[in-house]
């Protein structure tokens, strides 16, 4: 990559070269609605080193794998990837409400689940920006403007609670906030230094992945100079330049 940061720092930040499939997904995940004619895809992916024949081969494989659906010469995201786009857009919007000190707490009540089911539930709770205090007990400040999914009641019980000790200390225990901020700053540096379109797309694909793990805590629980909003603004600006439409964070 043509970036003025070390390869080790880039690897630690989650930067990795994008395949033709990854380029197509990045383009469609950033498009609203997430579908484009093949002629527009050819134009959009060419700056990233993906030629027409490579693109068409990738599109055929992605349709066969269920990643994309095709209607005539228009390709769009499948249902599974539409859900991924919704999660990505929500991560970039980070809708919050005033925090009054309450915390959401989710306690797992289901038993007899296999390893795959347990892993799926853990991933789902993490995607809701909950963190695990101990096995089966997940929580976060109640500052997100979203309800918990109703079907969680099949496997868990939710509560409203307040910690007896310092909420600031509890947040620092639940999330690696300093490490998250350091990675965010590394990504901002990569994005600022990237000049080639493929390098910029690689950098901002990593930015999106990192934003999905932002705990979106109340400001009083965050370290000083938290870079979450800077990262969202940088991605929104890039998406506006890339697609010609305002980014979800804008």
Describe the 3D structure.
- The chain is of the alpha+beta class and 250 residues long.
- Among the domains are: 17-83, Winged helix-like DNA-binding domain superfamily/Winged helix DNA-binding domain (Arc Repressor Mutant, subunit A, Orthogonal Bundle), CATH 1.10.10; 103-161, 2-Layer Sandwich (Alpha-Beta Plaits).
- Helix content is 48%, strand content 13%.
- The protein has helices at 7-12, 20-29, 38-45, 52-64, 79-93, 115-127, 167-174, 177-193, 197-211, 228-243; strands at 35-37, 68-71, 74-77, 103-108, 131-134, 137-141, 156-161.
- The strands form two sheets. A four-stranded antiparallel β-sheet has the order 5-6-4-7, covered by helices on one side.
- Helix 8 runs antiparallel to helix 9, helix 8 runs parallel beside helix 10 (228-243) and helix 9 (197-211) packs across helix 10 (228-243).
- The longest helix has 17 residues, at 177-193.
